[in-house]
Structures are given as C-alpha cells and as structure tokens.
Amino acid sequence: MKRPPTATELNLCLCHSCGLACDMTDEPHQCPRCDAPLHRRKTNSLARTWAYMFAALAFYVPANLLPVMNTTMLGNGSDSTIMSGVLEFWEHGAWDIALIIFIASIAVPGVKFVALSLLLITVQRDSLWARKERSKLFRFVELIGYWSMLDVLVVALVAALVKFQALGDIEPRPGILFFGLVVVFTMLSAMSFDPRLIWDHSAHQEAVDEEVMDEPIQS
C-alpha cells in the first residue's frame, strides 16, 4: 500500500510563524504571507535542546533553595523559598494559591524536564516506540510552557496585596530571578526541539519497505 507523499517530497515547508505551507522552489526562502525566514529543519535541534535543558536544570536548584521573597509584617521580616511559601499559604487556608504555586513552580518544570529527556533519548536512539503519543507529549510540553510564569505573577500579586494593607512590606529575593531563568530556558529548550525528528526513522523505513515490495520476485 502506497503512503501519501511527504512535505519534503512535495518541496513544501511549514512556516513557523503563521503556519502557511510554502513552496521551497523559489529563492529566497521566505514566507509569502508574513515574510518570516523558512527552514526545513531546526538547526542543531538536539544539541541546542540538550544545552538549554541542562542550563534550566542548573538554575532549577538555586530557584528552589534560595528565598524568592522577603515579607515584613508589623516589623517582623522573614525570607520565603518556593516550598516554604506553598506551606505557608496552605496553613493560612489559601490552598488555591498554594496549589497554583506548587504546580507552576515544582510540578510543571519537573514534568518538562522528564518529557524533554524522554523525547531526546528516544529520538537519538531512533526509537519507533509510541511515535504518535510522543508527538502529543511534545504539544503538551509546548502548551504548559505558556503557564510557567504563574508563580512570578502570584508573587507580584501577593506583593501588591501586602503593600495595599499598609501594614508591611515585601521585597523580591534572588530565587525569583533564578526561577525566571528556569522558565526562559525550558521554553527555549522546547522551542529548539524539532518534533519531525520523531518520524524521520519511520519515514525512511517505510520508503525502504516500499522499495523491497516493488522489487520483482526472482524464481
């Protein structure tokens, strides 16, 4: 059974900016709709994805160990890390804010590290395992990346509430900077990964299988 032609065989390329399927025959290779440069594949995709992810992992440790804010109420000041802030909000009954901070600051980066590592390792091993599911996993990583700054927004909201009460003060601490760097580098890592690499081996294998099936059987 013949498979449908691929975009490469039709000399087409998808624009990363607007999603238009563009003909790569003419030069220069720019999208006719948004003038963005066209690339058949992301350059050094695996190397850049690994590099950004290791950088995010390096910043993830101080982001969780260093205090992210200092709160002063009625003359008493204390530093709070991400986890201590989650426990403090939970103990004071603000379980919704505690849950948001925990998911955005602890769970989401951890899920992204595990998911990207799985995608990178399986691609480098030319694995044919669960290609469709791995493609969906990459889309999920892209989706949750946009919500990774929730923790920073919560800190800003808490700072505004504390200052509004005029009974205390709140200041950011170095941990929030490291957490922002974690968010940036994990997003860059996801953006650098080329999901088409998941299907490269299978497309090549299908082409080989078709050539074998088309060969005449010699008696």
TrEMBL record:
It holds the Pfam family PqiA. It comes from the Bacteria. The keyword Transmembrane helix applies. InterPro entries: PqiA-like, PqiA-PqiB_transport. One of its GO terms (cellular component) is plasma membrane. The chain crosses the membrane at residues 50-69, 97-123, 144-164, 176-193. Coiled coil: none annotated. Its main location: membrane. Keywords: Cell inner membrane, Cell membrane, Membrane, Transmembrane, Transmembrane helix. The keyword Transmembrane helix applies. It is found in: Cell inner membrane. This is Paraquat-inducible protein A. It comes from Pseudomonas koreensis. The lineage of its organism: Bacteria, Pseudomonadati, Pseudomonadota, Gammaproteobacteria, Pseudomonadales.
